[in-house]
Design a protein that fits this description.
Keywords: Chaperone, Mitochondrion, Transit peptide. Its main location: mitochondrion. Belongs to the ATP12 family. The chain has twelve helices and six strands. By secondary structure, the protein is of the alpha+beta class. The chain has two domains: 25-99, ATP12-like (2-Layer Sandwich), CATH 3.30.2180; 106-285, ATP12-like fold, CATH 1.10.3580.10. A hairpin with a 2-residue loop joins strand 3 and strand 4 (51-52).
């Protein structure tokens, strides 16, 4: 019998394009025993065996939030024999924010978001079907094809009703939150996004620093929806809820046709982890945590 570990390794080497994220990637063994954090000039740094953690470009990985620093340290501490860097989202986000390999500016990311709005997942509902009526003849070829087709058309109607139920409240919240009006797609054409909406959202995005916008981009790409990511940032949705809404059509099909017990849950967990990591960086960038020594009784009495 082939050992379980060998079977798993064989599977992970698959060339299936749908399983690329499970293929072998460059790894290195864990080279440190413990992790920690230290404060330096109102910044928090992560240490591996008392050595400062650095970015790929050689910069000291320093963040402005103690909870974020502790979360990154915990991420490194959770590694076992091999360091799985592709799933260390917090470290990757902070590395990108510090090194900025794409040489981007906050305006570049804001423009990217504004262009993404018109293709947002929440703005594309399933098409409503037209109610056709067959002639009723038992041997009519058209009627036989109709009854085959109507099964799939009925699915489209059910999916659209589900989308209106689940997506509708979020779109309504978005319009009230920013005092804008946003249409949904009719057919295959992207819905229009008004100049006023773009101006309001541009001011919103640019209210965040580069690190937060970079992390927000990571979440938007995971959800395929700036609107869902904004709802998460504004604490209207939790990451798990946002991932469910982003995968609504897939979940609809899985409920009807069944699911592979581990594969779909793994994908959902991975997306949830990405969004949660993005939110931690975004919220931490808006808060400044610092540690101060307690004053002695003599100092307090003065």
């Amino acid at each position: 019998m082939i050992p379980l570990s060998t079977s798993i390794k064989s599977f992970l080497k698959t060339s299936c394009t749908r399983c690329l994220r499970y293929q072998n990637y460059a790894t290195r063994k864990r080279f440190y025993r413990g992790t920690g954090i230290l404060q330096s000039d109102n910044k928090w740094e992560i240490t591996l065996d008392h050595r400062r953690l650095k970015t790929p470009n050689g910069k000291v990985l320093a963040v402005s939030s103690e909870p974020l620093a502790r979360a990154i340290a915990a991420e490194w501490d959770a590694q076992t024999e091999v360091i799985a860097q592709p799933v260390m989202h917090l470290t990757a986000l902070c590395n990108i924010a510090l090194d900025n390999p794409g040489k981007l500016t906050p305006h570049d990311i804001a423009i990217y978001f504004l262009e993404y709005i018109s293709t947002d997942t929440l703005l594309f509902y399933s098409e409503a079907t037209h109610r056709l009526v067959p002639c009723g003849a038992s041997k009519c070829v058209w009627c036989i094809e109709f009854y085959v087709l109507i099964f799939f058309l009925k699915e489209d109607d059910e999916l659209r009703m589900l989308q209106e139920k689940e997506w509708g409240p979020i779109l309504e919240w978005f319009q009230k939150r920013f005092n804008v009006t946003q249409e949904v797609s009719r057919g295959l054409e992207p819905p229009p996004v008004t100049t006023e909406t773009k101006a309001v959202l541009a001011r919103y995005f640019l209210s965040y620093d580069f690190a937060a916008l970079s992390a927000m981009s990571f979440g938007v790409e995971a959800l395929k929806s700036p609107l869902l990511m904004i709802a998460c940032v504004e604490r209207r949705l939790e990451p798990k809820q946002a991932v469910f809404l982003a995968r609504l059509e897939e979940e609809f099909q899985l409920r009807r046709w069944g699911r592979v017990p581990w594969a779909h849950e793994l994908n959902q967990a991975e997306l949830t982890a990405r969004v949660a990591a993005s939110l931690l960086v975004i919220h931490s960038s808006a808060e400044n945590h610092s540690a101060k020594a307690k004053a002695s009784p003599e100092q307090l009495s003065q």
